[in-house]
C-alpha cells in the first residue's frame, strides 16, 4: 500500500513576489495494493510533482510517504515510471531498451532477453525487436516504454500522462491494451491524466486535485465493472462521473 500523510513540497522561484512556489500542500492519500488510481486536476496543480515524489525522484519538505510501511527515501525496485516523452535510448533497439532495467539489476543475458521478448509480444511489438526508436511511431515507442517498465516486475507502476502526446485513435488503442495488461499483471497503478474520459475509463478511483498548491479535493469511486469495455463509455454511470469531474474542474478554473 502507498500511504501519503501531510505531504508538502515547495520549490524555489518567483510566485507573487514571495520567492517560492508551494506546489503541494498537506496531501493525504492511500492507494491499495493492485488498485488503479487515476489523478486529474487543473494544469499546474502538482500532479507530476506528486508522482515523482512517490517514485523517489525528488525530495519533499514535510509529511511522510511510505510503501508497505517503509519510508520512501529514493527510487526503488518496487516502482517503475512511464513518462509522456517515452524516454527511450535512441541508439538502442527495442530489445535493448526493454532489457536495460534487467541488465542493470544483474539479470543474466539469456533470462533478460527471454523476459523482454515475452513482454514485447504482450504489448503487440513482436518482430520489431531490432528496430530503433526513430523507426517506430509514437504509439509503438510508448509500448516499448511500457514493456521496459514491466520487465523489472515492479509492484507499482507510476504513469505520467503516458498517452498525452498521442493521437486520439492511438491513445484509445493503448488505453485498451493497458487495461488488458493490468488485468493480466495486476500491478498497483497511479496514472496522471488531463483527460476526463481516460480518468474514468481506466481508474478504480479518480483522485481530483485542487489548483496550486495541489491538495486532494476528493477521491471518487468509479462504479464500472471490469473488464472495462468501450460500451461502458455510453453508460449512465460513466457519463455521471465524467460530468461530475467536469463540473468540479470548471468551477475550480473559473475561480
Cα distance, first to last residue? 34 Å
Give me the number of helical elements.
Answer: 7
**Biggest β-sheet description:** 6 strands, mixed
Stretches where pLDDT falls below 50 for ≥5 residues? Answer: none
Shape: globular
Mean pLDDT: 91
Describe the protein in words.
By secondary structure, this protein is of the alpha/beta class. Helices cover 36% and strands 24% of the residues. The chain has 7 helices and 10 strands. Strands 6-7-8-3-9-10 form a 6-stranded mixed beta sheet, sandwiched between helices. A 4-stranded antiparallel beta sheet has the order 2-1-4-5, covered by helices on one side. Strand 1 (2-12) and strand 2 (20-31) form a beta hairpin.
Task: Sum up the structure in keywords.
6-stranded mixed sheet; globular; 7 helices; alpha/beta; 10 strands; 255 residues
Task: Explain the layout of strands and helices.
Layout: E1 2-12, E2 20-31, E3 36-40, H1 47-55, E4 62-67, E5 70-71, E6 79-82, H2 94-104, H3 109-122, H4 138-151, E7 156-160, H5 168-185, E8 188-192, H6 196-202, E9 205-209, E10 216-221, H7 236-254
Parallel strand pairs: 3-8, 3-9, 6-7, 7-8
Antiparallel strand pairs: 1-2, 1-4, 4-5, 9-10
Amino acid at each position: 500500500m502507498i500511504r501519503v500523510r501531510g505531504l508538502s513540497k515547495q520549490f524555489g522561484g518567483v510566485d507573487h513576489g514571495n520567492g517560492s512556489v508551494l506546489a503541494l500542500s498537506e496531501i493525504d492519500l492511500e492507494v491499495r495494493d493492485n488498485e488503479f488510481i487515476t489523478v486529474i486536476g487543473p494544469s499546474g496543480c502538482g500532479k507530476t510533482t506528486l508522482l515523482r515524489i512517490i517514485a523517489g525522484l525528488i525530495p519533499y519538505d514535510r509529511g511522510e510517504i511510505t510503501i508497505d510501511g517503509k519510508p520512501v527515501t529514493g527510487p526503488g525496485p518496487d516502482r517503475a515510471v512511464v513518462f509522456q516523452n517515452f524516454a527511450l535510448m535512441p541508439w538502442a533497439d527495442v530489445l535493448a531498451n526493454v532489457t536495460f532495467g534487467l541488465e542493470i539489476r544483474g539479470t543474466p543475458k539469456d533470462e533478460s532477453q527471454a523476459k523482454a521478448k515475452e513482454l514485447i509480444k504482450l504489448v503487440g511489438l513482436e518482430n520489431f525487436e531490432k528496430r530503433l526508436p526513430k523507426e517506430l511511431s509514437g504509439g509503438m515507442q510508448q509500448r516499448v516504454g511500457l514493456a521496459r517498465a514491466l520487465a523489472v516486475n515492479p509492484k507499482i507502476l507510476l504513469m505520467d500522462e503516458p498517452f498525452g502526446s498521442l493521437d486520439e485513435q492511438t491513445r484509445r488503442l493503448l488505453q485498451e491494451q493497458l487495461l488488458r495488461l493490468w488485468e493480466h499483471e495486476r500491478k498497483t497503478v497511479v496514472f496522471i491524466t488531463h483527460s476526463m474520459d481516460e480518468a474514468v475509463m481506466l481508474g478504480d478511483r479518480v483522485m481530483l486535485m485542487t489548483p496550486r498548491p495541489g491538495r486532494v479535493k476528493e477521491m471518487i469511486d468509479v462504479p464500472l465493472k471490469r473488464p472495462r469495455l468501450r460500451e461502458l463509455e455510453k453508460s449512465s454511470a460513466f457519463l455521471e462521473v465524467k460530468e461530475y469531474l467536469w463540473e468540479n474542474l470548471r468551477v475550480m478554473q473559473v475561480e
